[in-house]
Amino acid sequence: MYKIGILFQDREFEHDIYELIRAFYPGSEICSFYEEEEAGCDLYFRIEKQGDSCVIRYEDHENKGVTSAEFIEGQSSDALISCVDADDSEAKERAHAIRKERKDIVKIALYKLLVKLTGKTLPWGNLTGIRPTKIPMKLLEEGKSREEIYRYMKDTYLASDEKIELATDIAERENAILKKIDYDNGYSLYIGIPFCPTTCLYCSFTSYPLVSWKNRVDAYLDALEKEIDYTAAKFYHKHLNSIYIGGGTPTTLEPYQLDRLIRKIKCSFDLSDCLEFTVEAGRADSITREKLEVLYRHQVSRISVNPQTMKQETLDIIGRKASVEQVLTAYRLAREVGFDNINMDLILGLPGELEADVQRTIEKIVELAPDSLTVHSLAIKRASRLNQWIQENGVSMLHNTDETMKIAAAGAEKLGMKPYYLYRQKNMSGNFENTGYARPGKYGLYNILIMEEKQTIVALGAGSITKGVFPDGRIERCDNVKDVGLYIEKIDEMIKRKRELFT
To answer: Domain holding 315: CATH number?
Structure first.
């Protein structure tokens, strides 16, 4: 395995530097050092500050060189320190602006160096954040034109024309959708069901095999109802705009348990302002007619039936026990029951899959004609069994390209869908993105809200993270413990955390 060392003699922008280098060298072992240590490294970077410049030195077995990111007038260390030390808010804002400008200069210099070293570019340029659409969204809100947005993203982030256009299109679409949302007086609700029939090879979410927890599901719902009671009382004066029940796989619950949970939600909250109620049915092997009828009877407006791929051999490799035939059956059942807003998830870059496999999957999806399609680029998480599998087998067999992304986009277009939300993750195959496509009127509101961070989302259940968005622009979080047993045992503590956040 290729080993890369990074010596941070100056730790400013450490995270951004690390992530950008990792994006150019996927699959490599990357080590951060704070004292001189080159042993065993195939490529070695030194990051240091010289006056008002960030100097990046590199050395491999054959070459060495240096590049410098020089800060322009007004961005000096002295200017930054004086702003940070000031008491007034304008100075603090100026400090933030100076730091961002300095960071942008460093990332541009590093990106150009990495292009030189590797001979390749990245579709998103030097962008390392997970929410690239927030950039054009902010500029649109400032009244900037598409041309101004293009120039800013090209000059600052060196992104490709295609990705700039995609991000801007989505930002315009999101902007139109979100106009009907009252951020100050509204909120959304996430409820996590952390159980699955089995754990897929690539999964790093809070998920537990149902077989091990079947006897404690009702106790979990007891704890969840306590969180619901607190939330309903705390936010009684707010408008509930969207509800998302995710996981895990919510449809691992028995029909009576689903009925119990949704009845509790409907009895506890005023849903007159609820624009969307989503249940992520997800795994086809957990879906039955009886469960779908419970959801439909309770006016759940949107569900997901997620194949990930329509290639059976791949499903077998990743340990997703739901077969292609089960996916087809579950989807048809959902239509028969009456659902008119069905999402399907796909993952590109799964082990062993090539362009031809993605093409066949997309052709089958087009035949089914769901109302929305979420296309994920595989992200290899450290906590997933896939990462271990890759290490054990010595070969990743992961293949995601611009071509596979275009195949998926073309399929969505054939179904009359437009891209409406987008996000990125660490360690994504091909350094691409996850994109949600939908037909007009079928956009997933919750998906947009969670990405744009403009509204408070109260999250309930094991492993969930509440995100409070406050009038002064602050975004603060509090998390629930991931372990189901601890969540049940410490539910009062979980409620206390929320109470402190929203005091």
So the answer is: 3.80.30
